[in-house]
Structure formats: structure tokens, C-alpha cells
Amino acid sequence: MILFTDPYAVRVNGFPCKDAKDVVAGDFFFSGLHMAGNTTNKQGSNVTTVNVAQIPGLNTMGVSLVRIDYAPNGLNPPHTHPRATEILTVLEGSLYVGFVISNHENKLFTKVLNKGDVFVFPQGLVHFQFNNGTNNAVALAALSSQNPGVITVGNAVFGSKPSISDDILAKAFQVDKNIIDRIQAQF
Amino acid sequence: MILFTDPYAVRVNGFPCKDAKDVVAGDFFFSGLHMAGNTTNKQGSNVTTVNVAQIPGLNTMGVSLVRIDYAPNGLNPPHTHPRATEILTVLEGSLYVGFVISNHENKLFTKVLNKGDVFVFPQGLVHFQFNNGTNNAVALAALSSQNPGVITVGNAVFGSKPSISDDILAKAFQVDKNIIDRIQAQF
Amino acid sequence: MILFTDPYAVRVNGFPCKDAKDVVAGDFFFSGLHMAGNTTNKQGSNVTTVNVAQIPGLNTMGVSLVRIDYAPNGLNPPHTHPRATEILTVLEGSLYVGFVISNHENKLFTKVLNKGDVFVFPQGLVHFQFNNGTNNAVALAALSSQNPGVITVGNAVFGSKPSISDDILAKAFQVDKNIIDRIQAQF
Amino acid sequence: MILFTDPYAVRVNGFPCKDAKDVVAGDFFFSGLHMAGNTTNKQGSNVTTVNVAQIPGLNTMGVSLVRIDYAPNGLNPPHTHPRATEILTVLEGSLYVGFVISNHENKLFTKVLNKGDVFVFPQGLVHFQFNNGTNNAVALAALSSQNPGVITVGNAVFGSKPSISDDILAKAFQVDKNIIDRIQAQF
Amino acid sequence: MILFTDPYAVRVNGFPCKDAKDVVAGDFFFSGLHMAGNTTNKQGSNVTTVNVAQIPGLNTMGVSLVRIDYAPNGLNPPHTHPRATEILTVLEGSLYVGFVISNHENKLFTKVLNKGDVFVFPQGLVHFQFNNGTNNAVALAALSSQNPGVITVGNAVFGSKPSISDDILAKAFQVDKNIIDRIQAQF
Amino acid sequence: MILFTDPYAVRVNGFPCKDAKDVVAGDFFFSGLHMAGNTTNKQGSNVTTVNVAQIPGLNTMGVSLVRIDYAPNGLNPPHTHPRATEILTVLEGSLYVGFVISNHENKLFTKVLNKGDVFVFPQGLVHFQFNNGTNNAVALAALSSQNPGVITVGNAVFGSKPSISDDILAKAFQVDKNIIDRIQAQF
């Protein structure tokens, strides 16, 4: 389950494996999760990931971590994890969070979370966190996969490369193409 | 794995099970998938589902079907299945289809599908089908879950009940709130 | 999850993987499922498979498709899928279908299926489809594995290479060896 | 994971669960696997099963045992386990064993096993054991499921209740209906 | 996946499920993880668990959290999680951590972790954390199960109810029974 | 799923796979499980393993076997299997067996097993077997993994390489360091 530089190394799940005798403690280690991420961006938030790409020993283990930083009014915008449920706890500040369940209810569940509160975002559902406080907020979250993936709705729908045609998106969202174009221009 | 009317029946995965001796062939049967769905709606498309809700014998079986009808210019708008990969084949007409991979590439893969063509939409990824022909189109698709779920991006993000606040969505999509309000009004 | 020609490529489940940046839409595509299979054989049926061997992007996805063609009186003879449940729908014609549950009941469940009917054959159970109509029949079926396997009972028991000894089969089926020999001669 | 007599007991996988405080060692216990099964039957073999039906504590545990007794010339006839791989070891005597792989190879793998030999029959494949010695033989086998199921090919194909029509079986095995009828009469 | 008070409620994995229409945000919520646990005990450590027992919405989700507090010289003594891998990050202070791999290597991997460091303890392996600093330490850890279980080696081996006989433990640890008795007296 | 000598062979789960056409019956075979293991050691017991390391065809199959020999008063000392449940049956002699459930109950379940008795040790729990008879005892056990792993508590805690510091173990077991040192000296 451990990273090799040899391109012909044994691999599991597409990630290379060390021979057991070559494994070292460092293969299970990562450092720096106490460092605030840079939130000077449009969304005012930043996600630091600690998954199998950072810790080779996580391969096949079915769990990973992220740290999320939020400036005041910072948003971790609506997104999904295609292969994981998320459980999040607030380390600092306060967050307004929510998720939306599947069709046809599309019911929104929300909660204001303060320090020490925990909330669960079930696998594959659209969810978001918003810093509704006046200070920075910090959350730590765990995901039920070593490689959970993340799909930010805005980026996937309006910012894909190449773009989804504005004809299609205008129909999907039932608005004029110029509105779609305006949104696409942001991504 | 079979439906009971007794509320205290044995259940697996939250679905009731019949005693093996009470199982009948009808527990594995559904009829009507040859019937065109009604596409006289804003999207010009219709999905008929055949999963564990329709066929109790599918419980724990990890597979289900859908039929999708498309009027000319009909769209099965961008959506995800939180618990399933989809494999689709075109029975009639022609479709322009696509999916977008996870952050940060957000790469769009598209293909024009004609009768007999098959395409795969991997689990949890945003995907769509658009009838780019002048006649009705029909597709049949299989999903790798008896209860795959579906999240239509527009409905989940702009049409949830209650609504996600327009402050949050304006920030997420980097546009004015009045644009968000206009989109929300469509759902 | 995508096919490579390099024999030293990264592999998952024994199938090679492309580097994400080299993936193309064609890795998720197959064409020709609208083409009738050739049913001029002893059984009067033909199965066209669309699984991980045809679509490399299906690897790890847990689903695949088949098209089955039946001449009048054509039979998809008793068989099992060792790694998948099957859900089948009739596109044209009419089929008499059935499956047998495990020991010791060995109960047979049957149904006549017409166009648009759907039926489920649970994982590993012996099942068959017979065209009981006067025209060709066509079915499309999905399986809960990208590599479901198929074991045709006749071929496996009476047509293996080398043969199972007729002493053993005579005992298993409680008939004279010359009857076994006659059946084996057909395979 | 433990048996309750209350019909409204909590259940997992359709089997009832005891409250943890009511569990006793007996819930994980079975006795009598040293007793020879009665092999005075047509096949000259007998299978004693120890799975979740006998040991409630096996529920969700993914493993079970069987003891198989064979008279001289006794046969455990061709069968499959729809939900399990089997690993067998010979305790007494000698066995000629085999399994057949999936279409289209249908290759037969065989081996003569003596005391202390071990052989693996992969999930869902047709396999058999035949006592090729002059004394009784005994095997112990483990299966990778607490509820593996067993499908004896002869019973499922020629002895189902009701019978599969002899028209269908005559076509499947490419022989006259009277041969099918003769085989069906044995089951 | 949500808690019901009705004893006859639908249950999954032995945990009751609410009907989807009765689910509320509180079913995915827990509060208090910012509160230091009481470390005035022999080990000088305390574990606060947030799993399916605290958050009913975690059922089937495959992930949970714990907070661990350590007094100076506090120890989270050698233990295993029978159903989960653990990924831990240090929120405050410094920890000396380690795990031991399976027989026959029994190799010990250790690391000193400071604030922001992350370490992985693979499923089922014996591991520990020791506060090697002069201040309190705090860690947050995620586990790859909604119900991971914990087996503290000392409690299980020397503190079970009833006790494992000192004959057996004296043999297991190759020391006199009076030493075993002395250890057992501590639990 | 079959062993190759070519270091660049296709691999699944880190084990090499043969091309299907190169597979032979020997890839599913092991011999010698009738041979008594050597119990002239401190514990008076011996475990012979038959897993994926001995039978390459077991890869991905989720099951394996062990034979355990016990001299009179022989002990298979407290241990866990991190990735498997065990089901054991007594072939000869008599065993006193037990397992301890998770915190905080740490309840010990025990049973005396005679020839033909079967007992289950759930995944990851500490368990042991002791020959309480005057003759040799022999057990055969199956495990729900092709690679179950084994962690002997004494070896992992007191015999790791390098050693866990006696400060830590003295605290964990609440005894003087000289007692820990004495135990460590045995391993």
C-alpha cells in the first residue's frame, strides 16, 4: 500500500505498493494540517486534503481527512463527494451548513454549527458550508474513502473544460442563454 | 427480499422480505417499460424507473433499469446518481451526451450516440443527455444499485425545499442575487 | 480504469488503467448493440456482451449490458452468472422465462414476458429464456458486475474440455452411460 | 447477530439479533460435525451444513463449514454455490475432484486428492467430488458466506418443482424429449 | 437510517430507520466535541466517541469520529479497532504514537506527532498514543466504520468478565501466575 | 488470480495473476494438512496456514484454512485476526476456548469443545484455545479472508521489534516496569 518510485512496482487500486520489508512509518504520515489555508479567493474558503495522494499508506483503508478554512462570509460552495460520506466538526468559529436529499423531495436540511458541533453529509448529496460569523472559521472533516473525489457544482456545470453548451444549460436551468453565459464567465 | 404488507415483516435494507415459501414470480416482475413516457414538460424528457421500489425482488441485488424518453431538443438535465454507475444504450433516435470528471480537472467528455451505441457515466459524476435529432429519442439504461438515487443539479441547488439562500448561491456562482432569484423562480 | 497497450501499465482488477490525463470519451463507448445477433445455431439464440472486455471504462463499475436475440423457438439455455444478478426487458416479441431457486426447494418460477415486461434473475441461479412466439424476439439485460461470467449448464456439464467422465455424469443424473454419451456428443 | 424467539426482534440480513446483553456462548456453537452423514442414497454422499441456519452468531460473518461424507463410489454431484467460494480438505480417503470454468472455455480442472490435500472451487463454478477409493471418504470444507446456497445441477435442471418443460430441456441438451423425460423421472 | 422510538420500527444493520418524511437535521447532528474529556484516571486519557450510537444518521455511512484528550504522560493504551482503520491528527500538544504489524514480523512503527501532524493506524492493528509533552494534548481521529469497536488489550486480556484463567495467561505471557494475578488486579 | 514468476505480471490485490490460458489445477491445490505441526515450543501449539500465500488461486476469494495442533496443555495464545472471522471445529481431543467482546463490556465467552464441536470467533476479537485434555488435540478452522492476518497479543505488545517502551507498557498494564521487563524478556 506504499509508494514506490519504480514504475513497475506492484500496485493495488492503481497505487503502487512497497514490499512489506521496505515500509517505513513515514508511509503513514502527513504534516501541516494545523496550517490555515489561503482563503483570499472568490469563495473565501480553502480545502486542504489528506488522502491517498498525500499518505500512500491510506490505500485500501477507506478513510481520509480534510481541513477547511473559511474567511468571514467564506463559502465552501455546493458540492458532492461521489465516493464518500463526510462527517465534519467545527474547530473554530461558526458555520451555517446544509445538504439536499435526492429527487423528488429535494428537501434541504440545515443547521448552524458552533465549535465542537458535528454534522454528517451523506454520500453523493449536494452540501455546503458558509461562515456566518465575523471571524475565521475552521472545520476538520473525515470522508469514508481514501479517494473520495469532489465535484463542485458550479465548476462542474458552468466551468467544465470544454464548456457544456449554453443551449443545454439554458434549458436545464430554464433561463436565457445570456444568463448562462454570465455564470460561465465566472468559472 | 420480497414485499410484505405486514408492517412488522422481516426487512433487509429497510425493505420488507417475504418468507421464502410465500415468494411468487410476480415479486421479480414489472410491466410497461415499452410505454413512452410523457415528455410534455419543460425539459422535454421523462424517466421511467424500475428499481427496488417497483420490483421488491431487486432488494440487495445491486442493479436496476430506467427508460428515458426525449422529445426533439429534449434534455435529461445535468444530474448525478449518488450510489450508482450508469450504462446507457440508445433504442431510437440520437443523443448528445456528456459527463464531467471531478475537481480540479472538471474535464467534459462528450459523444454523439446513435441507435445501438452504448455509453458509461461513472458513479456520482454530473452527466446529461440531449436529443440532438429531429425525432423522439429513447434510451434504456442500467444502474449499479437497486436504489441508485438521482440528484438533478438544478432541482437540488435552485429548487430545494426550502430554498438555499440567494446570498449563498450568488456567492457560489459569482453572480448577482437577482440572477439567482430568476433561476430559483423556475423550480 | 482505461485500456493501455503498454504491458507494464498500471492495472486495477487485472485490467490496465490509463493515466487520467490520457482518458478519452471513447474509453466509455461501444457501438452496435442495435445489430441483431446471428441466431442460426442449434439453440436459435445469440448473446452480444458489453462488459469490461468491450468498454475499458467499466472497470470497477459493477454493471454491464447484454443484448439477446432469439429466433422463433430460440432458447437461451439454462445458465448461471457466477458474479451477477440480471434484470432483463423484452424489446420485441415474447419470451417464456424462468429461474430455479437453491436446494432443497428447487422451486421453478416462470413468467411469460411481452414487450416492455421486466424480470429479475437473482445472482447465481439457473435461468433460461425461450422465444414462445412466432417472430424473432429481442431482449436487453443488465448485470450487476462489469465481468459477470456465464456458465451454460449444458456446456459446463456435458461439454467441458476435457469431458467429465461419463461414470460420474451417469451417477449424477441417474441414467445409463450411453445416454450421457449421447448428450456429450452434442457439445 | 443472535437468534431471538420474538417475531418482532431486531433483524440483520433477515435473521434476528439478540440484544448484546442477552448473547450467550451457545449462540456461536454447534455440535456433531464428527458424526458421519448417512450415505445410503442414490449419490452415495451426504452434506452436513454448519451455516447461519445452525449458528445464529455467524450472521454477517462471511464464512461457514460443511462436512461431506462419501461411500465408495459416492459422488457429490455437479453443483454450484451462488454466493461463495469453497476450500475443501480431505480428512479420510481419496477424492477425484474437478471444476469447470465459465464460457467459452468450459475448461475442466481436476485433481486426485488424498488425506490432507486441499483444493479450491471458485465462486459460482460447477464442481464435483467423487470417492475414487475403496473406503469411505470424508471432507471438511469452508465457504466464503454465512449463507452460501447450493444448486445441484441435476436437481435444479431436471428436478425442479414444477418441472422445466421437456421441450426446453430437449433443446438445451440437444437430445430427444424421451431422454429428458427419463432423466427427469430420476429426480 | 434515522432513529425511531417505536420498537417495531424499520431497522437497517440493527439500528432503526425513520421514514424519509420524518427525518430531521438533528438526526445528523452531535454537539460537544470541543469539550475536553476527563483525564483524571489511571491512564490519563479520555476518548469521546461520535459514531452511530450518537448520530443515527451515520448508519451504513462507514465513518465516525473520536476526540482523544491526554494529560501530560497520558496514554491511550495499546488497543485495536476490529472493524476500522484510524486516521488521527494532533490538535494540541505532542504525541508519541505507534502500531505493530501482524505476525511474524511484529514490527513496531513509531512517530512523534506535533500539532497538525497526521498518522494512520491500519485496521485491526495494535496501536497506542502517549502524551510525551508537558501540557495536555488533544487529537481528533476518524475511523472507517460507523461502528468501529475498540478492544483495549489490557482490558480484554487481563480485565475480562469473567477473567481468563491465570493458568492460560501465565502460559501465554510465559510468566508466573502471581505476575498475571498482579496485572489482573489492576483491571 | 494465479502466481507468476515474471515480476511484471498482471497483479490483483498485490498478488500476481496468470493469464487464464496458463492456469493449471495446481494453482488451486495444497497438500500436507494431515501432517501434525510441531508443538515442541513454549506454547505447545502450532498453526499450519493455507491461505493466498500457499494457494495463489485463493486471491480475491475471501476464505482460507488453518490446522492447529495442541500438545496436552498446549495453548493457542490470545490473538486476533484483523481481517477475518474464524469458525473452528475439533478433529481430535478437547479444547477450552474463549473470546472477549469489545469495550466496555469486555465480556468473556467460553466453551469446552469436544470432537465435532464447532465455535465461531468474530472478526477482530481476542480469542484463544487451550488443550484441556490429556492427549494431543487437533482443530481445523476456516477464516473469512484469503489473507486474514494474525496478531498474537503477547508478541505484538511485549515482543515487537523494536520493543514498545516499558514506561508505556507499565502504564498500560498498571504494573512496575520490572514486571514488564520480565514479560518482554520472554518474547
Structure description:
Chains A, B, C, D, E, F: One of its GO terms (cellular component) is apoplast. Chains A, B, C, D, E, F: Residues 31-181 form the Cupin type-1 domain. Chains A, B, C, D, E, F: It comes from Oryza nivara (Indian wild rice). Chains A, B, C, D, E, F: One of its GO terms (molecular function) is manganese ion binding. Six copies of one chain form a homohexamer. With 187 residues, chain A is mainly beta. Chain A has two domains: 39-149, Jelly Rolls (Sandwich), CATH 2.60.120.10; 152-187, no CATH class. In chain A, 12% of the residues lie in helices and 34% in strands. Chain A is built from three helices and 13 strands, in the order E-E-E-E-E-E-E-E-E-E-E-E-E-H-H-H. In chain A, the strands form three sheets. Chain A has a five-stranded antiparallel beta sheet, with no helix packed on it. A five-stranded antiparallel beta sheet of chain A has the order 9-8-11-6-13. In chain A, a hairpin with a 7-residue loop joins strand 8 and strand 9 (108-113). The first copy, chain A, is globular, with a radius of gyration of 19 Å. Residues 1-10 of chain A have low confidence and may be disordered. Chains in contact: A-B, A-C, A-E, A-F, B-C, B-D, B-E, C-D, C-F, D-E, D-F, E-F. Chains D and E meet through strand 1 of D and loops of E. Strand 3 (29-30) of chain D pairs antiparallel with strand 10 of chain F.
